[in-house]
Amino acid sequence: MTEAVAGRSLLLSALLRLARNRAAIASAVVLALYVVAGIVGPMVWLHDYRTVYANYVKVPASLTPYPRAEEILPGAAAALRRARLTVENVTVVGDTATITVHAARPIDPRVTRYLDRSDLFADARLVSLADDALSATFAADVARHTFLVGTDANGRDLAARILISIRISLMIAALATGVALVIGVLYGATAGFLGGRIDNLMMRVVDVLYSLPFVFFVILLVVFFGRNVVLMFIAVGAVEWLDMARIVRGQTLSLSRREFVQAAEALGVPPGAILRRHIIPNVSGPVIVFMTLLVPKVILLESFLSFLGLGVQEPLTSLGVLIAEGARNMRNAPWMLIYPSAALTLLLFALNFLGDGLRDAFDPRDR
Questions:
Q1: Which residues contact 88 (CB under 8 A, 6 or more apart)?
Q2: How far apart are CA 126 and CA 136, in angstroms?
Q3: Per-residue pLDDT tens for 105-114?
Q4: Distance CA 86, CA 135 (A)
Q5: 96-102 β-sheet, strand order
Q6: Is 157 helix (H, G, I), strand (E, B) or coil?
Q7: Which domains does the chain have, with CATH numbers?
Q8: Strand pairing report for 121-129 and 135-142
Q9: Does position 1 have pLDDT exceeding 50, yes or no?
């Protein structure tokens, strides 16, 4: 007796086809790295994305820690100038700076706080004070800071800002795309399968929603939901489903005339089961491709809303906001545009390649 051969499920077959697509697998790895960077990166990075380094505004990327040797003397002079002290000499041995100063009036030992407030020094202390208190020697640890991709116009570490922006952009894209996917697929498949007057009525509702001014609608969402980013972009996803619904409806109208759907209807299969088992799986290819286009669309939409003051608010940021800031400073700080743009470009390439691979893997005609 011939032994029965175990069959493969449709999902397993699709995953095996996907595994043979090297570009899709590489893109999936890149996206996984983005997710890990967005979740873990801000918590383990050298700098906090909210910390402002007033002494390091728009400094370029460097593997060498700041401050440079030639910056220590001007930095000490600027910090102690507020205490009306004149810096005579600064000597640096290792990571300890010895600062000699004099003044026209007695020096208060508490002026070390001016050095501690500077980003260049830490743990400042009085070493010696002259008998007339008009000259003194201070010692302070040189605070070393490494900015691998430079700082922004406010003196914040750009790498930390990129990591938190990846988290925010991916979160916004996932929420909005997920909501648009669920609503659009169910709505479009139902309208296309039922057809007739119900289809006509449901599509007229879509046309009415298309006619609403988007910015006005978003302002209403902000009024109702406040500045909560999560709730607002869930609501934005509830608007972005319109294109998804039209695409799915068109595919469903084509599929509803196919033999396997008519056979299921003749056998008495309920409409809900036909939608779930025959219609929706067969529209997965176009839906996945559209999802890969919707994710960057949502990211760009978020940057537009943030530019209007309706999206992500400080101290949070996103890739769109960073690129907009970099464009304004590209003449004197090109790294503010280059690195966020490279991060967004790599993300979009990965999404497109993965979307193509998923489309090919889940295409029913390739089964």
A1: 100, 101, 102
A2: 8
A3: 888 888 889 8
A4: 9
A5: 86-93, 96-102, 135-142, 121-129
A6: strand
A7: 10-45+151-366 (1.10.3720.10), 69-142 (3.30.1360)
A8: antiparallel
A9: no
